[in-house]
Amino acid sequence: MTSGTRSKGTRSSFLEEARRAQIVQCAIDIISTHGYAQASLALIAERAGISKGVISYHFAGKDELIAQVYTEVMTLAAKAVLPRVEQQPGASDKLRVYIEGSIAFIGTHGPHSIALLEIWNGLRTPQGKPVFDARSYEPGLDFLQNIFRQGQAEGEFRRFSPRHMAVAVRSAIDGVLVQRITYGDKVDLEESSRELVDLFHAATAKPAAPTRGSRRPRA
Amino acid sequence: MTSGTRSKGTRSSFLEEARRAQIVQCAIDIISTHGYAQASLALIAERAGISKGVISYHFAGKDELIAQVYTEVMTLAAKAVLPRVEQQPGASDKLRVYIEGSIAFIGTHGPHSIALLEIWNGLRTPQGKPVFDARSYEPGLDFLQNIFRQGQAEGEFRRFSPRHMAVAVRSAIDGVLVQRITYGDKVDLEESSRELVDLFHAATAKPAAPTRGSRRPRA
Amino acid sequence: MTSGTRSKGTRSSFLEEARRAQIVQCAIDIISTHGYAQASLALIAERAGISKGVISYHFAGKDELIAQVYTEVMTLAAKAVLPRVEQQPGASDKLRVYIEGSIAFIGTHGPHSIALLEIWNGLRTPQGKPVFDARSYEPGLDFLQNIFRQGQAEGEFRRFSPRHMAVAVRSAIDGVLVQRITYGDKVDLEESSRELVDLFHAATAKPAAPTRGSRRPRA
Amino acid sequence: MTSGTRSKGTRSSFLEEARRAQIVQCAIDIISTHGYAQASLALIAERAGISKGVISYHFAGKDELIAQVYTEVMTLAAKAVLPRVEQQPGASDKLRVYIEGSIAFIGTHGPHSIALLEIWNGLRTPQGKPVFDARSYEPGLDFLQNIFRQGQAEGEFRRFSPRHMAVAVRSAIDGVLVQRITYGDKVDLEESSRELVDLFHAATAKPAAPTRGSRRPRA
DNA sequence: AATGAATGAGGCTTCATTCAT
DNA sequence: CATGAATGAAGCCTCATTCAT
Asked: Which of UniProt's keywords are assigned here (chains A, B, C, D) (predicted)?
């Protein structure tokens, strides 16, 4: 209204955003520890030390909160993984970094990863149909498919269906997450990472030429 | 079990079992079409054309019904897949038949497969902990791990972690199921089967010997 | 299923109907005493001495309960008033009996009448639009308009707009109800009835012929 | 009130009054479009482009705001109708002008009229009793009764109960409003006005003397 | 004087479970 | 054995009101 100082609107927005972020974070915690179905607004509010109504005040409803959580986690994951992948010139390296990055994200953002899986599996339309069905995977699958197509075009990869391979890679990574959820620290993510890299390297690489030497660029 | 006239108790048991089986079947239908969260006893009872109380009468509670569904489907799947796998002498063929059988099961028992996934993801303890977490996978994983160990011992497979490979195989098969749920008939299960067989053949096979000929036993 | 005795279905229906009727009656009582807006399911259930869930069990939701109340009262009112009206051959007598019957209904079915008015005024769509707006009056207005058309055709009534007269008659009767709601027994319904009969007789009758004698058929 | 610089208190009062008037106006708009039950403070504040708290600041509570709306509209209506009525010397003309003025007010102040009806029907005490029941009508009814008494005393009107006639006139005018709310412009207010004037002229006038000529002084 | 944030009560609905018949 | 009826908890949402800034 006056000048110089930050406008009220901005200050409002700042506090508003802080609250929203806090609530989103608590939602992630609760969803990851109690599961999507048990993640009631009451539980989330309790965790945040606020009244239930506060959530309704800052979010249009539970749906918006969940959507926000989803967006938050997806954005975080994409930022953590994709840029580093794209820095790799070769398809084989891209695949390796994608797998390594994805599994590393599970380690650094455990609750986020779990929450993502929970929402994925738990969020339904009122008719019971999944809101995030396989269609939501498409962007990620596209990303992988492009890597595979590049590798095949450049002769680095053998012939296979890029789509099915992409589905398998994503599924395998999710499988690691499921293991991690159950067994916690007993699952050595670095080992899982190495094994999956090897697995999909072997699965995609061209059959060894007769005079081939070392097979793996790195273990 | 076979003779016509049995004691009342047995006849009771027979009817009892028929009722239970009917309810379990309806539960599978409802869970697969409406999702776990929406699968209320009322919906299942309506589908079965019976009263809600009947379910409570035949099952200790919803949990027991769901557990029964789970057992039923797991048993069906095991019967459909495992015997044929064990008929194969070689580890490589065992793996191939396991994958083929598992994906074929998705095709022949769609609702069962979906229900299994729904229960897997949806069933929780009152504290929100998954009832069927990765631990429930262990029997299946053991089965696969044994195949891999056999193959490695017999020199058919390269060196890799049997456990991680087992997790990857199961996850990849589940990935096909998720695709199938979303895209239905547009997902060609036979193609998926072939691709996964190829994928894991390549992933497990020893690096091609210099003078090896055909790599795939079957296309 | 057997024979002779009433089928289970019927017995069920009987008890079912009794409960529904009880709940509808309690809803009428609560709506008439506390007003539509305050007529919560909790209050109605408390009055009926049952749990809130019972209402949800017997009715699809609050909407269906209210609709049932509305239908119940409308049907009662129609049965109480219309047949006697149609027994009258002359339009003038029809009008008189209609007014007398409508006001008598207020006396014999006070809570019903009040509940009807409350629902009429209070029930809204989620967007705030009245569910029972003037359109719902049309059947009743038609009935009155036909009386007026008959009277004009037979020369008993003077020239006027049947529609506007019909609206005025209905409104005047509702006005008596509003008075009754506020002042209770202090409003003499018989007197109100006589006055309205006179009023609308005078309003509809042809200008007195020069040699006219008695004006009212009944005082 | 007129001079430019006044004490702070007065200037405050001026702004205060402006704010209150603005809020009252917005309340009228919202009530008339969304209905009383849906007219939340949030909606009214949004319409006014202010914060919800402002309303609480300027009004003791929602009740006071509504009461203010009621007073505002009643005052407007009284100012629009009563003075012109009182200019008429004869009772018959007074009645005519009262009806004409009241219906004209519906045309010129649609939202006000609707809001008035909504408040009338919707506002309740915490116990569910109407706040504005028929008692609130008394001033208006008195005004009409005085007209009728005058007309009867001066021999212009026939014998009838002034009170019941007054109730009928008010009810009939309200009936026109209800029609207008539902059917909007399709209700010709001028026609409604003429018909009601005729109706109540006929209803109140002395039976035609044997040698009388024209019945209506004016249409 | 105004605001946005927070509260807490209350409403409707769904649902697994219990129980008398 | 089976049923329909009833329960009570829990969930999400709306809203008038209060309060610190």
From this structure: DNA-binding, Transcription, Transcription regulation
